[in-house]
Amino acid sequence: MNGKMQGVTLIADWKPKPGFKLGSKDIEGRQTYLGSLVWRNPRIEIREYDIPTPGPDEVLLEVKACGICGSDVHMAQADKEGYIFYPGLTGFPSILGHEFSGVVVEAGKNAFDKRTNKPFKGGERVTSEEMLWCASCRPCADGQPNHCERLDEVGFNVNGAYAKYIVLPSRTIWSLEPMAQRYKGDDIFLAGSLIEPACVAYNAVIERGGGIRPGDRVVILGGGPVGIAACAILRRAGASKVILSEPQKERTDLALKLGATHAIDPSKEDFADRVLEITEGMGADLFMEATGLPERVYPGIERVIWEGRTLNSTVVVTARAEAKMPVTGEVLQVRRARIIGAQGHSGHGNFPRVIECMADGMDLTPMITKKVGLNELPENIIKLQTDRSNCKVTYVAK
Ligand SMILES: [Zn+2]
Ligand SMILES: [Zn+2]
């Protein structure tokens, strides 16, 4: 398809900090795995692009909805020295946007639809993984695509979905058609744009955290979209108590609607006291750390594990944080507890399972508290640096 389109583009200057060395996967002047050590003076511009053309294994999508993620905000946000906040894989200039849904417009002859077991025809409503795992490195071959050694990321180092069209490999695309009964009209695209963050939560608590048994008690620390999605998933999985610790009332209200059974405001009440009170002294089987504030939250988690009567608790580290975790090994030993890291959303059947949950009534769309047009994206990405009153701000194509 010929023609032009606009893309909300992040631009920054390549100015590595003293001592920075190019890593094996970095490309001088273009791409690094350590964004916050390299990129300065981020700014967002709406630029004009040719509509991309799909290769034989690729699909051209018309984007219908795309949520703003915290990482978009952190790529566009500079610290006092002008360096971007976001620490990970980045290659600029790049069109941002990675939590999206759309419609297949055109597909290469080898672009394969996992739902029908046939090539894509066009017209299918779909979403995509954000992580473009290579499928041939050692971790990919071992079934660990979230740890791909040659990873590209949509909206980080390859062009993302804050545009009218996007081209993607068919291997990362998942059909939304199973959700068609549940979501009428364009609502399927809103729900579809929440699958990626929901899969981050699913991968953390079910895949990496080992899941739960019906009747287990769980604690989620941090009521961002991933934390709230975890509340919904764990409630569906049969948790008897889903306790969210989050200071912001708008977030806890949403979580209580979507799956949390109890909310704690850690700025006003003692986290450990409240968890022990709600669980009648038992504590929790699973904790999800989704705040990124290890120094603040681990003393409370440790006290619940130590004083609660539940053995074998699992703590899943989901949020990224540079700070070390203050944890006493003895507590883990005596209470048979474990701490486990989780990264990414791909593989392990995460996407099709989350799609099935949504098809079966796990509706996360109340998380979308504001819808914006393409031209309003730059100002809204900037606004989210300081204003946390909206849960998900989502670009909806006209
Ligand atoms: Zn994201
Ligand atoms: Zn790989």
Describe the 3D structure:
The protein has 398 residues and is of the alpha/beta class. The chain folds into 2 domains: 4-194 and 364-396, Medium-chain alcohol dehydrogenases, catalytic domain (Quinone Oxidoreductase, Chain A, domain 1), CATH 3.90.180.10; 200-341, Rossmann fold (3-Layer(aba) Sandwich), CATH 3.40.50. The chain contains 11 helices and 22 strands. Strands 4, 7, 10, 13, 14, 21 and 22 form a 7-stranded mixed β-sheet that branches. Strands 17-16-15-18-19-20 form a 6-stranded parallel β-sheet, with helices on both faces. Helix 8 links the parallel strand 18 (286-289) and strand 19. 50% of the residues are buried. The model has no long low-confidence stretch (mean pLDDT 96).
Which structural traits does this protein have?
single chain; about 400 residues; alpha/beta; Quinone Oxidoreductase, Chain A, domain 1; Rossmann fold; 2 domains; 7-stranded mixed sheet; 6-stranded parallel sheet; 11 helices; 22 strands; about 25% helix; binds zinc ion
Structure, briefly:
The protein has eleven helices and 22 strands. By secondary structure, it is α/β, with parallel strands linked by helices. The structure holds zinc ion (2 copies).
- Shape designation: globular
Helix and strand composition category: alpha/beta
User: Can you summarize the main beta sheet?
Assistant: 7 strands, mixed
DSSP summary: helix tally: 11
In helices, the fraction of residues equals 10-25%
Write the CATH architecture name of the largest domain: Alpha-Beta Complex
How many domains in all? 2
Q: DSSP strand (E) fraction?
A: 25-35%
The N- and C-terminal alpha carbons lie at a distance of 19 Å
What are the low-pLDDT stretches, counting only 5+ consecutive residues below 50?
A: none
Please identify the oligomeric state: single chain
Small molecules bound: zinc ion
Can you identify the CATH class of the largest domain? Alpha Beta
Mean pLDDT score: 96
CATH homologous superfamily label of the largest domain: Medium-chain alcohol dehydrogenases, catalytic domain
CATH topology of the largest domain: Quinone Oxidoreductase, Chain A, domain 1
- Rg, rounded, reads 21 Å
Can you count the beta strands? 22
